[in-house]
Design brief:
This protein is of the alpha+beta class. The chain has two domains: 284 residues, Alpha-beta prism (UDP-n-acetylglucosamine1-carboxyvinyl-transferase, Chain), CATH 3.65.10; 97 residues, Dihydrodipicolinate Reductase, domain 2. The chain is built from nine helices and 19 strands. Strands 3-4-5-7-6 form a five-stranded mixed beta sheet, covered by helices on one side. The chain has a four-stranded mixed beta sheet with strand order 8-9-11-10, with helices on one face. Helix 2 packs parallel to helix 4. The longest helix has 18 residues.
Length: 399
């Protein structure tokens, strides 16, 4: 296994973790030199210190840290939260994610307030039950789920939750990507969950509602996903709410036109529209999610969200072009799924290995945080922006 800090490309080794990031992003090495270290907590136990400016320096550091902290019972202190964002500190969706994970782990928190750059998270025990969470804005429900879903896998008796916020917003996976890409791949590990979209929510008003039920598991299986067979089918869902139905149709038609020119793919895109008198949504919005059929041995996904002034045809073409890139990479795991997998594989049994279409800064960041919080071992063979192999030696967590 190639250690995380020793990524390889074309037979030559890259420098260690901090230097590698400096080379790629032209950032100061001191920003990444901090490793997790122990310090005395209020109760006298040892606390893991995490620098929130690691890697891409966004909310994912916080979500992965909290999720693994809840699973393992490790006390953590995250500082410099979202330090590299134009509006650093906690935002509404990050607070909702932490509150959700805290509810599942009966955690004590300090610093959980809007704009905070420091958070202490002290889990006490795994819980179960039904929960409701409201982001309060169009903040991404999918990103809340990224923190909540790993913690829910090992809840004491299963968990059901309903979340209100944004289902289809920029800079986050649409809820249909979670339904049709994330959950099918996680099921290979033994992760079982049912997700329902009760109402869609778009920027800026949100108001979407999602329900999820997660069954408790006795352990997660390792994942070996380095090859895939020929892709013959692409499925998808194109939606438009509080808008004319032709918006969804135009998105789908534009996507189908591109996809059908690629290796003679069979394309099946469903339309989701509502008659004006029976449309339950709060604000207008649209989007499309495309995903490959599981006959190839895996699922690849791509998506695009509608915006004011963005033609419906461009929404469809954008998603289709992304999926074509994923298909042509030959990899069985797309660039977005690669970082989502990391926390699950960190606590799974044995050694996992997967090939991704692109090594991203999000994935590198998630891998490093997973190592620091869980004690797993992760190796990345490849270079940022290119395809690569990721190997994870999980810790074999049990309830």
């Amino acid at each position: 296994m190639v250690p995380l800090g020793r990524a390889q490309n074309q037979g030559s080794e890259l420098p260690n973790w901090p230097v590698m990031l400096v080379r790629v992003n032209k950032l100061e090495a001191s920003s990444f030199a901090h490793e997790a270290k122990s310090s005395s907590s209020k109760g006298g136990d040892r606390m893991i210190e995490i620098d929130g400016s690691f890697g891409e320096g966004g909310g994912q550091v916080l979500r992965t840290t909290a999720a693994l902290s809840a699973l393992l019972g490790n006390e953590v202190h995250v500082r410099n939260i979202r330090a590299k964002r134009p509006n650093p500190g906690l935002r509404a969706q990050h607070m909702t994610a932490i509150k959700a994970v805290a509810a599942l782990s009966d955690a004590e928190t300090s610093g959980l307030e809007l704009g905070s750059s420091d958070l202490f998270f002290i889990p006490r025990r795994k819980t179960s039950g039904s929960f409701k969470f409201d982001v309060g804005t169009a903040g991404s429900i999918s990103l809340v789920l990224q923190g909540l879903m790993p913690a829910a896998a090992f809840s004491s008796g299963g968990a059901e939750f309903e979340i209100t916020g944004g289902t289809d917003v920029r800079w986050s996976p649409p809820i249909d990507y979670v339904r049709f890409v994330v959950l099918p791949i996680l099921s290979r590990l033994g992760y079982v969950a049912q997700l329902k979209v009760l109402r869609r929510g778009h920027y800026p008003k949100g108001g979407g509602r999602v329900s999820m039920k997660v069954q408790p598991c006795k352990g997660l299986r390792p994942l070996l996903l380095t090859e895939r067979s020929e892709i013959k089918e692409v499925h998808g869902i194109s939606h438009s709410v509080k808008l004319p139905s032709h918006v969804a149709q135009r998105q789908a038609s534009a996507a189908e036109e591109i996809l059908k020119k690629t290796d003679h793919l069979n394309v099946f895109v469903k339309l989701e529209t509502y008659p004006p008198a029976a449309d339950p949504h709060i604000a207008p919005g649209s989007g499309i999610v495309l995903y490959t059929g599981e006959e190839c041995g895996t699922v690849l996904g791509a998506d695009s969200v509608g915006e004011r002034g963005k033609p419906a045809e461009e929404v469809g073409r954008q998603a289709a072009k992304q999926l074509v890139e994923e298909i042509k990479s030959g990899a069985p795991v797309d660039r977005h799924m690669s970082d989502i997998l990391i926390p699950y594989l960190a606590v799974a049994e044995g050694r996992s290995e997967f090939r991704t279409s692109q090594i991203t800064m999000h994935m590198i960041t998630n891998a490093k945080i997973a190592e620091l919080v869980s004690g797993c071992e992760i190796g990345i063979n490849g270079e940022l922006g290119n395809p690569g192999i990721v190997a994870v030696k999980g810790i074999g967590l049990r309830p």
